[in-house]
Amino acid sequence: MEQALERIVLVGKPNSGKSLLFNQLTGLRQKVANFPGVTVELKSGKFDSYELVDFPGTYSLEAISEDESIAIEQLHHAMQEINTKLILCNLDGTKLERSLVFALQVQTLAKKHNKSLVFTINMMDDLLRFGHDIDTEKMSAQLGSPIYAISAKSLYGMSEFTEALKTHMTHPDTAKIAASEEENQIQQDHMSLAKSIAAEHGIKPDIVLKKQNHLDSFLLNNILGGFSFLLIMLFLFQSIFTWAAPLMDAVESAVGWSGSMVVAYLPEGAFADFVNDAIFGGVGAFLVFVPQIMVLTLIIGILEDSGYLARAALICHKPLSLFGLSGRSFIPYLSGDACAIPAIMAARTIESPRKRLITMMTVPLMSCSARLPVYALLIAVFVPDTQYLGGWVNLQGLVFFLLYFGGIFTALVMSKVLNRMVDKRKQSDLPFILELPSYRWVNWKPLLYRTLNSAYQFIRGAAPIIFTVSLVIWVLGYFPSQGDLNSSYLAHLGQFIEPLFAPLGLDWRYALAILISFLAREVFVGVLGTLFSMDNADENIDGLAAQLQADGLTAASGIALMAFYVIALQCVATVASLKAETGKKRYSWGVYIAYGTLAYVVSVACYMLLS
Q1: Would you tell me which of 152, 288, 324, 468 could form a disulfide with 20, CB atoms 3.0–4.6 Å apart?
Q2: Helix (DSSP H) and strand (DSSP E) numbers for the chain
Q3: CATH code for position 144
Q4: C-alpha span between 368 and 573 (Å, rounded)
Q5: How far is CA 88 from CA 8, 128, 269, 546, in A?
Q6: Parent domain of 34
Q7: What is the pLDDT of residues 92-132, one digit of tens each?
Q8: Does residue 73 fall inside a structural domain?
Q9: Contact at 8 Å (CB) between 381 and 553?
Q10: Cα→Cα distances 494→336, 474, 512, Å
Q11: How many whole angstroms separate alpha carbon 461 and alpha carbon 467?
Q12: Residue 175 confidence (pLDDT) above 50
């Protein structure tokens, strides 16, 4: 049995540079897991010959949210474990008093369990820029624990700190945390001691806030702030098309070239048809859209790391409150643009149980990354790539923006409806409190890692489903007639459900793709890729979009189909996540049925109006 590594536990308040410090110490060699029985993430990596565990950021050991409660409970558990050798507590040097309140609580807890503790004062690059330094020796003597001044971003003091950290692990010293006059004072009044130490060593808040307030006066202005917010969101969705287009073309060319090279070495027959049509036609059509998901993750990461994302939540609080939501609902809503499952989990931080439930039930209306392949495919079919303003704006990007806006608008309307339906007793008196982090330059290395990892996770999660569905569809479509769709098993199944989708102007192939896409929305593209590759295998057609266009998909049917996917909850994993978070089947399956019915009615109405 492999012996567990000795562990370093990394703690600190949110927006303190803790995650960047973790990335620097582990070199991005890390894994993400969940606490037992819950979905709060726990990151771990290897530092030297030790395990470094990054706990979620918390402001206090007195929890005010479910996330904090779980993290604090697990921190107490980690303190009791014998392989936990050191507590590494990260402080925000620009907001020292606020960081010290939590740090002193952690120090008291470490003393109770006889654990060695080390402090880091992070963001020293910002302090030095303002000409401020910290006497770490004097502060260490006051606190009774070693203190190291570092910048995880500029690497200031990092080499000395990493060597010192190894020394602390090989020669743990808990004597400095033993009971003393200072420690007794900490136990009596953490806030008083934090205030006095911060006043002596910390930088004056008005110096740090001067530049931040200058930017906030513009970005949080009632008029200019809202206008800039809309421009930033428009830029976000325009970039998905503008920046991702070359990468999509490269992937499409690579898939097509690989398919032709592989098939050239295979003997003619069923296996060659399977490789060409099911693998490269079905799975390949899905891979083309991965660059768009990466661009979306990259832009959202830039907004988050720069400090703007918190401002966006503040801007959104007042309008969201009109629909029974909190400004914190903006974060799950924006996360829902990547995937509804982590977005539903992110709603745990919302202070009101009532608003939390409404947010979770409306998050599936956000246009997640799994919808991207569907939108991009249908837009490419019937929306011309017309350029405006010298190429800065194109018609496809505008339609893309409207689709996302349609999901947001529907979510807000449903929030208003649910606000009247949800039990009025599920209300909380907790106020809306949000810390505004300092504006910072983005650290590109961990952000690019997150971007690549999002693509990997998306492919890993979707590719097995895509392959399985493509295989099943190909078999049903190829047999018993050796590729003649009109007399295949698939044709019979599609024709059976075709009348349901005839009011949208769609034939059995689209009906079948919609039905199967409940497994995962992106399966829709894989199914059509398989179907149309088989239907047109001998023709020289450049891509699935061209095949649909040549097949006669009308603008009315295409818009109706997009309207359906904007609203419908076509994701079994999201239904399962709703069930797990709410604990009630009537919420999860009720949302699925309600959104499916609404999507069908709206899509039929769109088709009738446009045709």
Answers
A1: 152
A2: 28, 9
A3: 3.40.50.300
A4: 13
A5: 7, 23, 63, 57
A6: 7-203
A7: 988 888 889 889 999 989 988 999 999 999 989 888 888 88
A8: yes
A9: yes
A10: 32, 13, 5
A11: 11
A12: no
